[in-house]
Amino acid sequence: MSKRDYYDLLGVAKGASADEIKKGFRTKAKELHPDRNADNPDAEAQFKEVNEAYDVLKDPEKKAAYDRYGHAAFEGGMGGGPRPGGGMGGGQGDFASAFSDVFDDLFGDFMGGRQGGRQRAARGADLRYNLRVTLEEAYSGLQKTINVPTSVQCGECNGSGAEGGAEPTTCPTCSGMGKVRATQGFFTVERTCPTCSGLGQIIKNPCTKCNGAGRTQKERSLSVNIPAGVETGTRIRLAGEGEAGMRGGPPGDLYIFIEVDRHKIFEREATELHCRVPVSMTAAALGGDIEVPTIDGGRSRVKIPAGSQSGRQMRLRGKGMPALRGGGTGDMFIELAVETPVNLTSRQKELLKEFESLAEDNNPESSTFFKSVKNFWDSMKG
Ligand SMILES: [Zn+2]
Ligand SMILES: [Zn+2]
């Protein structure tokens, strides 16, 4: 199924202002509100699309990315990467809670009168973990144990926040509505219930370990599988491994952001590896075999043809980096750099001078160059 254009979904023109985008979203969200769509089974899916579109277009950075690349801007990464409509998983009840988040944000107390009206248990935050790996590790993939400081469900109360895991009870002040009404003259004012802070439930005896939050701070050890072929900027999403939610809410996700260290010998370009190999002047002139390192820790013999010049490239097929999602392995390229000898002894100088005196057509590039230079000067004399 192809995705619909985000601007279309909000009913606004491309390049609409932030205000127009917000207005468009309000209109669509009101149309699709569950209270008005009891018999429209598609409303939920439509709302999710609209919400996703708004999530992207309200954020200047995401909007710029979308304007430039379209939906492709949000498709990279492992396991799908962060969804633009983050926080709306597939579980039951997510729709309603996503709705209440959106509406609390947009309309504030305006929506307070709708049925229930109380806040859902909040979803835990997403976490980001930066992981540096070496190029060798990126080549082979690795299993890594990482320690993530996070909050986890309280084991004492099983996340309920109540002593001994008891169920919270309905708030007596608001009868579970999360809001209380007060009459002031002609007006009825509705405000968040002061007893339960809008949750609609209270805990008679808060858990002593987590003080009623239902979660505690903890460093958690996770074993992560980093696939072969990761690059700097690759994101790996571990669904449900983020922070625990408040009072039994769903957990967030954990995103591992990969950074691959520079390597002393190899330079990487996507799946290609480049390696500059210095060779002695005599080896380059006479030709011969050299041994070059490969990223898997092995070595490859490479034949240097006699008369090789600096900059000559040779390809070693399949000795590069693996592609992240299958699709084979790249090649490795070596580039020769002919090294002029230094620190010559007098004997060596003597031999080189003798070699020079025997020179015939040994430097065709120089000869051609200086012939051209001579012609140039001649032509200038006119
Ligand atoms: Zn607890
Ligand atoms: Zn209350």
TrEMBL record:
Cofactor comment: Binds 2 Zn(2+) ions per monomer.
Keywords recorded for this protein, A-Z: Chaperone, Cytoplasm, DNA replication, Metal-binding, Repeat, Stress response, Zinc, Zinc-finger
Record localization: Cytoplasm
InterPro entries: DnaJ, DnaJ_C, DnaJ_domain, DnaJ_domain_CS, HSP40/DnaJ_pept-bd, HSP_DnaJ_Cys-rich_dom, HSP_DnaJ_Cys-rich_dom_sf, J_dom_sf
BP-aspect Gene Ontology terms: DNA replication; protein refolding; response to heat
Alphabetical list of SMART domains matching this protein: DnaJ
Repeat (CXXCXGXG motif) residue spans along the chain: 154-161, 171-178, 193-200, 207-214
Record-stated family: Belongs to the DnaJ family.
Domain comment (free text): The J domain is necessary and sufficient to stimulate DnaK ATPase activity. Zinc center 1 plays an important role in the autonomous, DnaK-independent chaperone activity of DnaJ. Zinc center 2 is essential for interaction with DnaK and for DnaJ activity.
Name of the protein in question: Chaperone protein DnaJ
Zinc finger (CR-type) residue numbers: 141-219
Residues that coordinate or bind Zn(2+) 2: 171, 174, 193, 196
A single GO cellular-component term on record: cytoplasm
A UniProt-annotated Pfam family: DnaJ
Record text on subunit structure and interactions: Homodimer.
Gene giving rise to this polypeptide: dnaJ
Source superkingdom: Bacteria
